[in-house]
Write a structure and sequence with these properties.
The strands form three sheets. Strands 1, 4, 5, 6, 13, 14, 15 and 16 form an eight-stranded mixed β-sheet that branches. By secondary structure, the chain is α/β, with parallel strands linked by helices. It contains nine helices and 16 strands. A hairpin with a 2-residue loop joins strand 7 and strand 8.
Length: about 350
């Protein structure tokens, strides 16, 4: 009996020791790619028309970025303008409405999430907004920033991959003076600190690891962030947003990383991702970037580190095939160097340098 009592005491002692030592869980990674504004100007709408099928197809626009997106666990972009359906009439600037086939092409290209809060959210009024979300659902693209119901707005967008939970929000400075219905203020997420605070708290209550916010802000066509952008960004980071993704200026602006200590996650901002697709040309409006982030989660400290950060410059190449205008998002990468015009190649390299080093 003495022997067995001694053995039990030893087992109990060892169990207490090992239970006090936290398990050493290996880190996991999540690779996120983000692109900027996707804008369907009238010439792009027309370029996708196929008389053989009497319909639209935009898959060719994204064929060169599709293999790049395939390397990511999550791809996010900003859809700037409604996909409201043919009955509303297709139109470009100033009040957009594009065919839903754009969503089909983006899905095939590998886009997982589209944010919809921007100054063109209300271009086709309530019907256009709701039909846009219906069409994104049809092609199984997740979305946030505009909402059909209060319940939808109250349901946070959370993506979990490799045991890392990403919360995504989207907000815009306004809607070009087109009013959000007074009885449905939930339809568009405006850039409001109280609103964002509520969204961040809701995500934190759902135990997300990292919060990314697509924020539509800043003056157009300016390559450096404005004082207002700087102020908004600092406030968002203080509220608990981990990475601010800027859209609206239509040109690429710089990147800033705030490295956390050993018990804090890294934070960051790209003040503007530029145009991913548009008919805007010259003065850097036809260039954009694919922001490529590798997030690493320390499961023991519950922190996220930005293990790797790169940018892939892109260019919207416009050509003519059999008299019809064609568009293609061209990644400016080494594999394409021989087929890219020297000026485009040089601008792409300059853009990468600018993103990381502009003051």
């Amino acid at each position: 009996m003495w022997f067995w009592n001694s053995i039990l005491k030893i087992i109990l002692f060892l169990s207490l020791i090992f239970s006090a030592v936290p398990p050493n869980i290996p880190p996991t990674e999540l690779r996120v790619m983000v692109v900027g504004d996707i804008i369907m100007h009238s010439p792009i709408i027309s370029a996708g028309y196929d008389p053989n099928i009497k319909g639209y197809n935009y898959e060719d626009i994204f064929t060169q970025v599709q293999p790049i997106f395939a390397q990511a666990d999550l791809v996010i972009g900003n859809l700037e303008g409604p996909l409201g359906g043919a009955d509303l009439g297709y139109s470009g600037y100033p009040r957009f409405n594009a065919p839903k086939e754009l969503a089909a092409a983006l899905k095939i290209a590998g886009v997982d999430v589209l944010t919809t809060a921007n100054n063109h959210s209300m271009d086709q009024w309530e019907k256009g907004l709701t039909k846009t979300l219906d069409h994104l659902d049809e092609y199984e693209i997740k979305h946030t920033g505009t909402f059909r119901t209060e319940e939808e707005k109250a349901t946070p967008l959370i993506i979990e991959v490799n045991e890392i939970k990403i919360g995504i929000i989207a907000n815009t400075y306004g809607t070009n003076g087109l009013p959000v219905p007074e009885d449905k203020p939930y339809m568009v997420n405006l850039l409001d600190l109280d609103t964002i605070r509520e969204e961040v708290v809701r995500l934190q209550e759902n135990n997300v690891d990292y919060i990314m916010a697509m924020i539509h802000y800043g003056p157009e066509y300016i390559r450096l962030p404005s004082a207002e952008q700087l102020e908004w960004t600092d406030q968002l980071l203080d509220l608990g947003v981990d990475f601010v993704l800027g859209s609206h200026p239509h040109v690429v602006q710089p990147l800033r990383i705030i490295t956390g200590d050993e018990n804090q996650s890294d934070q960051g901002v790209i003040y503007s991702l530029g145009n991913f697709l548009s008919n805007q040309q010259w003065d850097w409006k036809d260039y954009g970037i694919i922001l490529d982030l590798t997030l690493e989660k320390d499961h023991n400290k519950q922190t996220i580190k930005l293990k790797n950060i790169t940018v892939i410059p892109t260019y919207v190449q416009i050509s003519s095939v059999n008299g019809q205008r064609k568009y293609q998002v061209l990644p400016i990468i080494e594999e394409n160097k021989e087929s890219i015009a020297q000026e485009i190649w040089s601008n792409g390299q300059e853009l990468v340098e600018f993103v990381f080093n502009a003051k």
